[in-house]
Amino acid sequence: MNSWMGLLERNNKGLENIKIVDLHGQHLRIKDELDQAIEEVMQESHFIRGRHVGQFQENLEKYLDIRNVIPCGNGTDALQVALMALDLPKNTEVIVPTFNYVAGAEVCALLGLKPVFVEVDPKTFTVTADEIRKVLTPKTKVVIAVHLYGQCAEMEPIMELAKENHLYVIEDTAQALGADYKFPDGTTKKAGTIGHIGTTSFFPTKCLGCMGDGGAIFTGNDELAAKMRQVAFHGQVKKYQYEIIGLNSRLDTLQAAILDVKLQYIDDYIKSRNQTADFYNSKFKDHPELEIPLLPSYSTHVYHQYTIKVENRQQFSKKLEDANIPYMIYYPSPLHLERAFSYLGHKDGDFPVSEQLCKQIISLPVHTELTQEEIEYIAKVVVN
Ligand SMILES: *Cc1c(COP(=O)(O)O)cnc(C)c1O
To answer: pTM value?
Structure first.
């Protein structure tokens, strides 16, 4: 195995070409191993359901310490398969944050379920048990807790509320694979393994990314696992025997082989992004116009994004642009104000925290290939 070089050992590359993500750089470091994995898949040419899929599944089960990982086509499919396996009547209410990527709300709508938007916490950007309680009705059966940007939502209070109200909790872990949830007794569990079902995405830029699309579902419940495998496999229990309506969602062998290599480095990637985030935090924490990410006591952070809040984003982003520093806005608009969800009848002001966040948040480069020089330069421009 190649040794993975740490942040501080990297060569300086100059400051003209800072990237928001650098997948090429990330892959170059482990190119020999990736080439070998790709070569193996080509030699065997078992491109669908090849042995690497099962091998990666087992390794991810070990890493997450969960009984069942079900690889699938992408993170959106993972949510759809999970919801289909729960067999919910039409118009069942599914609570999903409005400050979020579209996937969770979208699959609810596709399946004839009702997405019920919920406000997020202004400091952690994630859903809380208190906010969920406000939108609960007798029709609510599911909560999709999204671990936005890379740290966990407060799973313990959410699971308690879910138990009282007989709700399923799906953890959308697309941005937080590898994060640890810390329980008061000192034990930890990986994000995505606390609720009834966890889902993730292996989209190239995610914490564990492949070279195309990929996703997975996790559960400790064997019955749910069997159902989800069936749903993702055309509703079959065995070939050409269709018991329920399913869909076709699978992780291909090539992506699984690539992910199996990269899984060995996931903790290094997390550590590298934490080093960058720690440096940024130390430089930004006393700045009057910036608010750094709050790290809650119950979670570690994998910094899929390093997202700060700024008073005047237009002015701030102009400053970054002038200094050739790339940035992203996740997300420019809350889902309840998007036209696709206008049928739900929301208006401006329904979720003021999320609406305000959409105007203030900005994500800075935090990828694994940043040099110390680049990080210092970014920090200097930000605080000036
Ligand atoms: C990326 C992402 C998804 C969807 O993953 P895909 O693989 O692109 O379908 C779902 N939820 C969240 C929070 C995401 O960030």
So the answer is: 0.96
